[in-house]
Design brief:
The chain is an all-alpha fold. It has one domain: Helix Hairpins, CATH 1.10.287. 69% of the residues lie in helices and 0% in strands. It has 6 helices and no strands.
Amino acid sequence: MGVAVCPKRCRDEPESFVFILLSVLGLVTMVSANHLMTLYVGIELATFPVLAWIALRRDNSRALEGALKYFVLSALASGIMLFGMALIFCGGLSLVSRSTRGADKSNIFNRRLFGFGGADV
């Protein structure tokens, strides 16, 4: 997939595949998160490889400028998100998703669509 997106650049810079894989790992972590801190780690893991991939072209000043802007805006957004999580936590609420609190019950979507998760459909 990465070769189809950037055929010349990926051949010249083999670390591009590592950045793509780390970003995909972050996206998978975000999708499977049931805790807000896991969601935050997934977002950070998805964005930092993209930032490094942008800044990899040191000969291009626009790429470095874009990477710096991306880093500043990412840091600002992460700070605001962590502040919101702190407000949720200090407000007495839980950082765990409501759907995972009753872990003994399976997801009704999985039960009906895939046919597993319990017989009481």
